Recover the amino acids of this structure.
């Protein structure tokens, strides 16, 4: 394992499968891991709001026998009061790991380069790898072997979409991404996913047609149209993304029994309708639960005593 978990790319195809297996094991036998991180402390840097990420990292550390310290945006004022390098050089003297949710991905990279302790990406503008681990755990639980599945993402080609593509490349999962023109996932992430997935069975289709993308899908995923930091674009985006709403009509064009996924928080009535997110085929709260199990596996791998 690499020192840090900043991207799905930090896991080899083999490690990706192993990490999902470990998450499933931790989920099944939580008591076995009650002392896995005894005495260990995680510093959690948040420059954006959070429910799931904060709760699952903090409860995850507590349930593994360790502790977590929450650093709110105003606590350390990353970037204005102090830069990532000095923050990393300080934190490494006191704690055993750092989790960071921030804007520019380079901030997380700089922090990881400065600190000798593990750094975990808990969302940047570029990616959200912990979310993708939880999502692929959820997919596997509900639909079986990842290499037999097609996952369709509809909406903004954003951080969540990027990490899903890189995870699909490792899982050998076919993927279709439907975005409005101009909101496609970044070309370098598309190229990286195709490169990483060339021997796994991964295939990627990019389209502007949600109907085309959902055909044959075992699961349909969407995310908010305006991410944290894009609040000023909310209204313009609402108009552009309106044809990309995941509603019952669109779900009916996926494979019978297809799942609905969303990282949450959801803007009900925008990117997804109530009838879809509250449907029996929606697994959004399983994904939220699995954030805990997937991250426990990541925390153990990075911060556990090496034997
Ligand atoms: N899905 C997710 O990361 O949720 P939060 O923003 O609430 O942490
Ligand atoms: N794309 C969203 C994900 C939130 C979990 C954002 O960055 O705000």
């Amino acid at each position: 394992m690499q020192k840090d978990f900043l991207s799905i790319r930090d896991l080899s195809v083999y490690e990706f499968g192993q990490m999902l297996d470990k998450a499933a094991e931790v989920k099944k036998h939580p008591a076995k891991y009650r002392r896995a991180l005894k005495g260990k402390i995680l510093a959690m840097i948040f420059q954006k709001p959070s429910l799931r990420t904060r709760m699952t990292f903090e409860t995850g550390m507590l349930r593994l026998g360790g502790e977590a310290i929450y650093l709110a945006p105003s606590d350390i004022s990353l970037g204005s009061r102090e830069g990532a390098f000095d923050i990393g050089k300080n934190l490494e003297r006191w704690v055993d790991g750092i989790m960071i949710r921030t804007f520019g991905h380079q901030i997380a990279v700089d922090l990881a380069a400065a600190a000798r302790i593990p750094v975990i990406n808990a969302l940047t503008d570029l990616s959200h790898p912990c979310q993708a681990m939880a999502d692929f755990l959820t997919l596997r639980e509900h639909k079986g072997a990842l290499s037999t599945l097609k996952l369709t993402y509809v909406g903004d080609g954003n951080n969540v979409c990027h990490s899903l593509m890189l995870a699909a490349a490792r899982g050998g999962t076919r993927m279709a991404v439907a975005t409005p023109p101009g909101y496609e996932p970044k070309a370098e992430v598309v190229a990286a996913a195709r490169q990483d997935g060339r021997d796994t069975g991964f295939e990627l289709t990019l389209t502007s047609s949600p109907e085309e993308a959902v055909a044959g899908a075992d699961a349909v995923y969407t995310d908010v149209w305006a991410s944290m930091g894009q609040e000023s674009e909310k209204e313009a985006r609402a108009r552009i993304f309106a044809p990309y709403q995941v509603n019952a009509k669109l779900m009916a064009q996926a494979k019978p029994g297809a799942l609905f996924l969303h990282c949450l928080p959801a803007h009900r009535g925008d990117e997804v309708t109530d009838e879809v997110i509250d449907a029996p085929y929606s697994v959004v709260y399983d994904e939220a639960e699995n954030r805990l199990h997937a991250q426990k596996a990541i925390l153990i791998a990075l911060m556990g005593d090496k034997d």
Summary: The domain at 8-128+291-303 is CATH 3.40.50.1370 (Rossmann fold). The mean pLDDT is 98. The chain has two domains: 8-128+291-303, 131-287.
